[in-house]
Design goal:
Blueprint lengths: L19 H12 L4 H11 L6 E5 L5 H8 L3 E6 L2 H11 L20 E5 L13 E10 L9 H8 L3 E12 L7 H12 L19 H8 L3 E9 L2 E3 L2 H9 L5 H6 L2 H12 L9 E3 L2 E8 L1
Parallel strand pairs: 1-2, 1-4, 2-3, 4-5
Antiparallel strand pairs: 5-9, 6-9, 7-8
């Protein structure tokens, strides 16, 4: 699956404040698919298929789950963002739930999907079959404190998996390999304009070499390989790029320190070096994944 240039919604006002629903849709329609090469690379390496029972922590609006389900996997997703989870439910379960999809359903992948609000993932099937793959596709290592909630989530999920199950953690690659890092620095600079400067979790920070290994160690997981994947961020225009980047949450502290319009303006300016003659925006990035065993 290749990155897609995503066009701005007709009639959308890029300077208007975004509510939770708009932000979740921007993530689902613009930003989430930028990570599709990461999903595919992990699934290829893990040989995801009909024998896979996958738990997706922080499943977002469900694209990674859909890709796995199309390969034949049974997937369960958990997320605390109700708006994103609602979009995942519409994408994966538009007509039927986990157990009541008819055998003749035109969307068999949807019969293998289940979505739960954060608060305790459950075994995959009615027979209590445990998971054999746990994935975390929300990349860490780009914002202060972005892994704090992940460690307890992993500790809660591991007992639901078979002994020796695979856990895959994902994160941003080195800043020098990620063009988007230069744009994300706008978030820190604007957040620091607050008096006193804001230091709360969520502010952008340079990715550290051992971010994923640190999470694995704290969660009691044993690293068993890693990989890097090219995930270019491609947008049809600057407006789409601004909306997509804002939907990640990495600019929230900057918005609170200044205002949304100011943040949008400065993101757009930072994107100029990556805008091509036809108006599209293209930023090469590298993401990393760490394969662990329970």
């Amino acid at each position: 699956m290749t990155p897609t240039l995503v066009r701005n919604q007709l009639g959308a006002d890029a300077s208007a404040p975004a509510d939770a629903g708009t932000r979740a849709r921007d993530w689902a329609e613009i930003q989430e698919r930028m990570l599709a090469p990461l999903y595919e690379a992990v699934y290829d390496r893990m040989e995801v298929g009909a024998a896979t029972r996958m738990l997706s922590l922080g499943c977002g609006s469900g694209l990674a789950m859909l890709v796995a389900a199309v390969r034949g996997a049974h997937v369960t997703g958990v997320d605390s963002d109700r708006e994103r989870l609602a979009l995942a439910r519409a994408r994966l379960l538009p007509d039927a739930g986990w157990d009541d999809a008819p055998a003749h359903s035109p969307h068999p992948a949807r019969r293998r999907a289940r979505l739960l609000e954060d608060g305790g993932p459950a075994p995959v099937g009615a027979d209590g079959a445990p998971y054999n793959l746990i994935t975390v596709f929300e990349p860490i290592g780009c914002a202060a404190g972005d892994s704090e909630g992940l460690v307890p989530a992993l500790r809660s999920a591991v007992p639901l998996a078979v002994r020796g199950a695979t856990v895959v953690l994902t994160g941003w690659g080195p800043p020098e390999r990620c063009a988007t890092a230069a744009v994300l620095q706008v978030a820190t600079r604007l957040a620091d304009t607050a008096r006193p400067p804001r230091t709360e979790p969520g502010r952008w920070r340079p990715t550290l070499r051992d971010d994923l290994e640190d999470v694995a160690a704290r969660a009691g997981l044993k690293p068993d390989g890693s990989g890097r994947v090219s995930c270019p961020f491609g947008y049809a225009d600057v407006g789409s790029a601004v909306r997509g980047l804002l939907s990640t949450g990495l600019f929230d502290a900057a918005v609170r320190a200044t205002d949304r319009s100011q943040v949008e303006k400065e993101i757009a300016e930072a994107l100029h070096p990556y805008q091509r003659e036809d108006g599209t925006v293209w930023m090469p990035n590298v993401f990393r994944y760490l394969v662990c065993v329970t």
